[in-house]
Specification:
Keywords: Stress response
Pfam families: HSP20 (PF00011)
Order of helices and strands: HEEEEEEE
Number of domains: 2
Strand content: 25-35%
Domain CS: 49-156
Protein name: Heat shock protein Hsp20
Family: Belongs to the small heat shock protein (HSP20) family.
Radius of gyration: 23 Å
Structural class: alpha+beta
Number of helices: 1
Largest sheet: 4 strands, antiparallel
Oligomer: single chain
CATH architecture of the largest domain: Sandwich
Distance between the termini: 74 Å
Amino acid sequence: MPDRSDPFDSITELFERLSRQLETAARSWETEMDVRDGGRSRFDFSMTQSSPSLDLADEGSEFVVTVDVPGYDTEDLEIRLSGETLSIRGEREHEAEQGGADEQYIRRERAVQSFNRQLQLPDPVEVDDVSATVNNGILTVRLPKREPSDESTSIDID
């Protein structure tokens, strides 16, 4: 009897491809939502814990970003500013096990956790004056606004 292919192989392949496309679309939607209005996406197809809550406030001379990061130490967090996009990443691992290898957990949910948030700022900021602090599980990033300049620059035409 000749070898026949499994009729479900093509269906399985189709579902895997669809799943990858949905994950890509969800990431795109999340980034677009964050960039467009500083909001959080309602689309979360990932199997991991959701990103921490984030607030962006305009306090006149500066923007203040506040992020809930309970359990994260300062060395667990990375903050980057690229143009007008603020990126905040965090990764933490559970503490080393105490009590030896024979200790058995009834339930263990605290493991490696990470997040990555990107936020488009409405206006340019003074990169050299940005500051960040963590206090009681709350990360506060202060981003002083760049003063508008009346200077004009001549641009040569080729």
